Amino acid sequence: MRVGEVRARLDADAVGRDLYRRIEDLYPLCRSITGDGLRRTLRYLAERAPLTLHEVPSGTQVLDWTVPNEWNIRDAYIATAGGQRIVDFQRSNLHVVNYSVPIRGRMTRAELEPHLHSLPAAPDWIPYRTSYYLATWGFCLSHRQRSALAEDEYEVCIDSTLAPGALSYGEGYLPGASADEVLISCHVCHPSLANDNLSGMVVAMTVAALLRDCTRRYSYRFLFIPGTIGSIAWLARNEAGVDRIKHGLVLACLGDSGAFTYKKSRRGDAEVDRVVAHVLQERGARHRLEDFTPYGYDERQFCSPGFNLPVGCFMRTPHGQFPEYHTSADDLSFVSPAALAESLDTVLAIVEALESNQRYLNLSPKGEPQLGKRGLYRSMGGFAQGGVDELALLWVLNLSDGEHSLLDIARRSGRELGAIRRAADLLEASGLLKELAT
Ligand code: ZN
To answer: What is the pLDDT of residue 372?
Structure first.
């Protein structure tokens, strides 16, 4: 079954509920760029999609970086001298600066102060903070809670470990007719944040699970990696094979209600850039196209000049452009089943378009071939079999000179890529077209 058929059979409501349920399952886990929360997340994904876990030992040199020590955390709190926990990791894993070194003891309010992070402009939200590469510790709390810290002395505990271990990531590979690859990557390192990273993870997981059952022209590679260090580690270990990546998408922030945003690859005119732009336009979806910038998610690494891979980033509202970003307000209420389902369908439409975007050769290029005698031309203005209009047939015949892909033909003719695809299928079945190797 082609991806288009699988896509057509999906029930948007059921798919949306399923994606949302996966986010609910994964939301409580305390993920980071290493550690057991990350491993448990990857195992959960691996039970539902074709992917394998990989471990890169701490201390491994990866490009210009070194894999850090593994971080694990069991508990953390700020308590009153009387033992009452007022900031409690068990209530929200955002309360601890991710990668905090262990600390335990009593300290004064003044000593505690430089280790506190809050958002005065959003006094009820807990900020999300990390310190992966600088050994420090801290607590994040609502500004309201911080303002209420009135005692002179507090009991402070972060029961964490930073020790040699490994960086974990998940990788899935689905072979296709061609060894040329489509890369789909998402970051998996954020703790209890729903849109910024869980939405991308569950959409990527579901795309992988669905593509497993499809016929594939391309091979597909799925990466579930901790941000930055994960893509750098993967690139360092797989440098020899990256030339096979012909198209790529980084998926993030796909569960909010905002319009779609596509950030083009560094190349700017890669096939994936043109395909995504076309799919978004054809759907009539509200969307924005942005040029590449060396900031954002792992496209930064895939598009670094030494690799310059054709990888764009597909999002709804981009990172940093919604107030809830990197705060406790990016929670389960911030994402919706409907938005997730629409994002999944759009990613599948992009995959379908990539799969469809072949080049053909008209085998009867001198004059128009007589379509009527082949049952392809029923009556003026009518439709041939398979719901293909005659103009689509004529456009495909006319532009299949080896120079134009089906996307080129769709754009030039103003007809839907799906209609052009069906016309090419019919013409190929009639012996009038031959597929050209990519
Ligand atoms: Zn983030």
So the answer is: 85
Q: CA 422 to CA 70: how far, in whole Å?
A: 52
Compute the half-sphere exposure of residue 277: CA atoms within 13 Å on the CB side of its CA.
17
- In the block, tokens 């974990």 appear at 168
pTM: predicted TM-score of the whole model, two decimal places: 0.95
> What is the distance, to the nearest Å, from the Cα of residue 201 to the centroid of all Cα atoms in its chain?
6
Sequence-distant (≥ 6) Cβ neighbours of residue 339 within 8 angstroms: 16, 254, 255, 256, 257, 316
Q: Considering just the CA atoms, what is the radius of gyration of the chain in Å?
A: 25
Q: How far is the CA of 197 from the centre of ligand 1 (A)?
A: 7
For residue 409, the Cα-to-chain-centroid distance in whole angstroms is: 29
The pLDDT value given to residue 377: 73
If we measure between CA atoms, which residue out of 315, 221, 226, 231 comes closest to residue 41? 226
- Residue 126 DSSP one-character state: P
Task: Give, in order, the Cα–Cα distances in Å from 171 to each of 3, 181, 197, 231, 270.
Answer: 21, 14, 16, 11, 24
* Cα(38) to centroid(ligand 1), Å: 15
Cα-Cα-Cα-Cα dihedral sign, residues 287, 187, 4, 178: positive
Return mean pLDDT, the chain.
95
Q: Are 292 and 346 in contact (CB under 8 A)?
A: no
Angle at 264 between CA 258 and CA 266, to 5 degrees: 145
Beta-strand relationship, 260-263 and 245-251: unpaired
Which residues does residue 433 pair with via DSSP β-bridges, in sequence order? 362
319 C-alpha to ligand 1 centroid (Å): 7
- Rounded to the nearest angstrom, the distance between the alpha carbon of 342 and the centre of ligand 1 is 22
Sole residue written with tokens 């799906």: 418
Instruction: Give distance in angstroms: CA of 327 to centre of ligand 1.
Output: 10
The stretches in the chain having pLDDT less than 70 are 378-388
The rounded Å distance from CA 280 to ligand 1 centre is: 24
Going by DSSP bridges, is the β-strand pair 433-436/359-362 parallel, antiparallel, or unpaired?
antiparallel
Please tell me the chain's helix, strand, coil percentages from 3-state DSSP, rounded to the nearest 5: 35, 25, 40
Confidence (pLDDT) at 380: 45
249 CA to centre of ligand 1 in angstroms: 17
Structure tokens at 229: 């260090």
Residue 437: predicted pLDDT? 82
One DSSP character per residue, 308-343 reads --SEEEEESSPTTSSTTTTBTTSSTTTS-HHHHHHH
